[in-house]
């Protein structure tokens, strides 16, 4: 989110030895905006293997606080966030974020989760929490050879909610890049054959409504090339989807008969559009470990540089999704992808702990209750987007996949309702302007416009995405309160892009544009909720207006319930 990051801290290392002279280091790093500590067991005599039966790190708070968290869960991070007092939190997956009565913000998480088990938190009474590591099938938590380093246990501490988002503490507690030539790693925007399947209008499997056909893909490539979008994703291009859930089902090297891989590759190249590969594993880790090398090589041989992976399904029996075994699997995937110069977008990932500093090809990931839930459940409430940037987002980029313009699915003509959770009234619980704002507030170096392209074609608001830069020089939070509202400004060169969002309450924010350069006038193009925009009845109504602004301007930002604004500010050439 910033092109330059300061990594400034004081370090203290304590050597702790027991009577028979086996020892470990307890290491602290203290930053301006928080602290990290970890356990380091170096190679030493009389230690030939390490087994962790329990980690008893505790986080004990002197008083209660307001807390935002999801429940501890060894398998999933796709939950709605709870807002409640800290002492009533029974358990949590991290990040868990707090606001004390005197207005101090804190967030507990972990950084650099490498060759270790994921950490959950269990309430031990009152405001006292103990670490509960995700176990192996034999209940052991962590297995190592002769040395070991725990992830950093992190506590971010700030005066304002927005400073949590601006912090780089998690990234800073990761190792420098292991990839020397990073010239092939580039953020990009993308569209894809995706939302139609979640709606039930198209299918992943081959048949009458198959999404990933050669023809459809060409249509998406044409669209991307005319709207300044670098990447196109296709899901359901390879065989196996009809056997989803069975071992060995997905074959990530064999295409369906109606998807001509070579033809699509050639067409994309001609149109100067990048293809985004997709490997759904269905959770079948053992098969994928055998196949991934060849499957990644196939992508790289065809000049494909981005890969989305997925783990929608049960992993091998006895293992948990967030245990050490899976942490190691996900890392092997990142390393193998780096070998083939592939950037990754991981769905159903391991939690984000900042490893993209070490492996910058790890671009973005899910690990959140994302857009898809709106297709086939009661959906994500308006406040969801006002909590995830302050919790899950602190670990790293989120592939939430914003940008649904057909908010109430009014165009679902061929809708076949494949998922029984959808009672037929599923929809997106925001206004259209807020969908656009999420492209800015929810940072992701691979950023999707997730709707079916027919909903963007000729739409006046899509200009915003068309012009949206893919990377940023600096990011600032202009206004923020967890669960209520968020305004983020990001700079690319001399231009600023602002996203503002609100929860279920209508709000007016006054945003001073004092970050603009003095002596220069700018043009602001503002995509806003209109006077008659209404979350229930008329969520897609919006207004575009132009304004002349400068560093003295205070922008009055009006948002209806569930609404937002997307703003582009560029210097006027006068
Ligand atoms: C879940 C992923 O989050 C979604 O993006 C994908 O379309 C499905 N799995 C199928 O792979
Ligand atoms: Ca709220």
Q: Would you kindly provide a brief summary of this structure?
A:
The chain has helices at about 160-165, 170, 195-200, 215-225, 260-270, 285-300, 325-340, 375, 430-440, 465; strands at about 10-15, 25-30, 35-40, 50, 60, 65-70, 80-85, 90-100, 105-110, 120-125, 130-135, 140-145, 150, 150-160, 190-195, 230-235, 275-280, 305-310, 345, 360-365, 445-450, 475-480, 485-490, 495-500, 505-510, 520-530, 540-550, 555-560, 565-570. It is an alpha+beta fold and about 575 residues long.
CATH superfamily label of the largest domain = Aldolase class I
Please state the structural category: alpha+beta
Query: Within the CATH hierarchy, at the fold level, what is the topology of the largest domain?
Result: TIM Barrel
Based on DSSP secondary structure assignment, what is the total number of beta strands? 29
Which ligands, by name, code or SMILES, are bound? Answer: 1-deoxynojirimycin, calcium ion
Please report which band the strand proportion falls in: under 5%, 5-15%, 15-25%, 25-35%, 35-45% or over 45%: 25-35%
Secondary-structure topology with pairs:
Elements: E1 10-17, E2 23-31, E3 34-41, E4 50-52, E5 58-60, E6 66-70, E7 82-85, E8 91-99, E9 105-111, E10 119-125, E11 128-133, E12 142-144, E13 148-149, E14 152-158, H1 161-166, H2 169-172, E15 188-193, H3 195-199, H4 214-226, E16 231-234, H5 261-270, E17 274-280, H6 285-301, E18 306-310, H7 324-339, E19 343-346, E20 362-365, H8 373-376, H9 432-441, E21 446-448, H10 463-467, E22 474-481, E23 485-492, E24 495-502, E25 507-512, E26 522-529, E27 542-549, E28 554-559, E29 564-571
Parallel strand pairs: 15-16, 15-21, 16-17, 17-18, 18-19, 19-20
Antiparallel strand pairs: 1-2, 2-3, 3-13, 3-14, 4-12, 5-11, 6-7, 6-8, 8-9, 8-10, 9-14, 10-11, 22-23, 23-24, 24-29, 25-28, 26-27, 26-29
Helix pairs in contact: 4-5, 6-7
The structure holds 1-deoxynojirimycin and calcium ion.
